[in-house]
Amino acid sequence: MNMQHKNVYIVGMYDRSITGFATYKEELSACMLTQPDLSVNFINLRCPIPEFRIDEKSGIIIYDCPATKQKPLEVAGALLSLHISDNNNNIFLINFAPSALFVKILRKYFNKGKIVYIIHDFMWALYLWGDINRLKDIIACGKSDKLTPLIKQFYFDGAETFNMSDHVVCLSEDTQQLLENLYKVPKHKLTMIPNGLRDAFDSISYNKKTKLCGAVSTYRTLLYVGRTSEQKGIIDLLECFKMVLKVFPDCKLALIGEIDSKVIGAMDDKIRPNVLLLGEQPKQRVYEWYRIADIGILPSYYEQCSYTGIEMKMFGLPVISSDGFGIRQMFRPSNAIIASIGSRSHRQEFQRNLATAIIKALSLPAERISELKQNSRRDYLDRFNSINTLNKYKCMLEKLSIDRI
């Protein structure tokens, strides 16, 4: 049975920076555009423009809604209703939080369409560093501190959003279990669809590695890519690198991403000569580093489904990862070396574990490194390529269209 034609509206807040959602939107839309039964539209909210604007680019209709001084989301809903007919073929993919208010607005103007909420992040996780046990304590009123009112606000907004949505997409098993067990979302409303990327793998010569690193080819290179926020584990990585250099004094640590003052402050004279501060880089340049680095580092305290992690897998890079919320399903002992976070209130424990994992990785025989590379690449092909992601979205949309979920 063929699926009826669907109008997919990917809804997000305006953001100039390169984020995980920007990658998600680019990858998912590129795959959906190959399907004759899907049309793709972007709805950008709170844009810094004077008036509502509709544009078309590469087959995608783009609706830019201005950040009006009064009730910008209500205004956006009203403007969209003038240009989008309310019918059963509309699917709105909501990609931001908190979003309960906008889901209510969509229900008001587009009652015939379906609303699917995509969980890219939990607002509470930013403040609790992904600590589920602390979240449960706060919600159960067993633990109270200055964050309690804010965390409860985020929790109840999320619960309301999940309840009002027709379906919810989880990017990780951790998130699906949390929604079932804590938020009490019925299983039939949930689908687990990890992020996916189109394959960009190819090889690179060792001479290119020497040129990129600015170092002799005998140096071992660790690679960190992404936002350099504390919740991403960057400070812990820099602290543990001091321990690593005592064992491997010629090791290099390459950091790709915006470098802030906290990162600079965490570097002392002992490690500064061995840290390569590369700043933000174009995608192709980042891909070059994936091809030639020895080990990728993903020390996050929590993730949903890290595109950096997927990219590392795609290029067959051996990875050292934390066991944080969401990330522990992406990386397992078969395809990575895992560093336990332990207690978030005693970060020295994680730093020691991270140093131990890096030293272990740098000491592995060539056979084990080759095995990790092969398993990492295979995991990308099996779970995180864009074709798998598209097929799962199409399956979900088809079920929505025949009201089976």
Automatic annotation (TrEMBL):
Gene3D superfamilies: Glycogen Phosphorylase B. It comes from the Bacteria. One of its GO terms (biological process) is lipopolysaccharide biosynthetic process. The keyword Iron-sulfur does not apply. InterPro entries: Glyco_trans_1, Glyco_trans_4-like_N. Residues 217-377 form the Glycosyl transferase family domain. Pfam families: Glyco_transf_4 (PF13439), Glycos_transf_1 (PF00534). Coiled coil: none annotated. Keywords: Transferase. Residues 150-197 form the Glycosyltransferase subfamily 4-like N-terminal domain. GO terms for molecular function: glycosyltransferase activity. This is Glycosyl transferase family 1. It comes from Hoylesella timonensis S9-PR14.
